[in-house]
């Protein structure tokens, strides 16, 4: 299905980000309403349900500014969480065997540092969702910065 048809269905001005799983769009409603609308459009067009996480341009800039691993961005990723984990959920993540991998939580964004890269990482997307019991989408730091720059230009 072409992008023009999808744009009409969504009723918003939007731009897909190539090969990243990200879409940027202009929307005047609530984040919750947008999440539901995006889920419905994806399910209608592709036949499956996905978790959707929404951040606005200000949130995205804050993600960059709050990075607790400023000097270690080569192997850095950010997990954008569907909601802020509870104390018991965080405890479950703290107790998980994650080897040398490290993480830092800022609100509903979990910064993930993989000192040896992601190939043998133990702190995986599946571990995050299982321990935290929230939907998450993970992006590497280069993608985070590219999207931030694009949002600043718009």
Automatic annotation (TrEMBL):
Residues 1-23 are annotated as: Disordered. Residues 14-23 have a biased composition (Polar residues). It comes from the Bacteria. Gene3D superfamilies: SP0830-like domains. PANTHER family: BLL4334 PROTEIN, DUF1697 DOMAIN-CONTAINING PROTEIN. This is DUF1697 domain-containing protein. It comes from Deinococcus cellulosilyticus (strain DSM 18568 / NBRC 106333 / KACC 11606 / 5516J-15).
């Amino acid at each position: 299905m072409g992008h023009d048809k999808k744009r009409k269905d969504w009723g918003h001005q939007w731009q897909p980000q190539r090969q990243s799983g990200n879409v940027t769009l202009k929307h005047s409603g609530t984040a919750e309403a947008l999440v539901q609308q995006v889920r419905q459009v994806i399910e209608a067009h592709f036949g499956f349900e996905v978790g959707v996480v929404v951040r606005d341009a200000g949130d995205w800039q804050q993600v960059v500014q709050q990075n607790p691993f400023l000097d270690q961005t080569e192997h850095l990723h950010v997990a954008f969480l569907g909601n802020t984990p509870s104390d018991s959920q965080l405890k479950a993540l703290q107790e998980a065997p994650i080897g040398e991998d490290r993480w830092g939580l800022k609100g509903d964004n979990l910064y993930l540092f993989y000192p040896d890269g992601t190939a043998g990482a133990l702190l995986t997307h599946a571990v995050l969702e299982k321990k935290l019991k929230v939907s998450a989408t993970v992006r590497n730091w280069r993608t985070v910065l590219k999207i931030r720059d694009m949002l600043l230009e718009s």
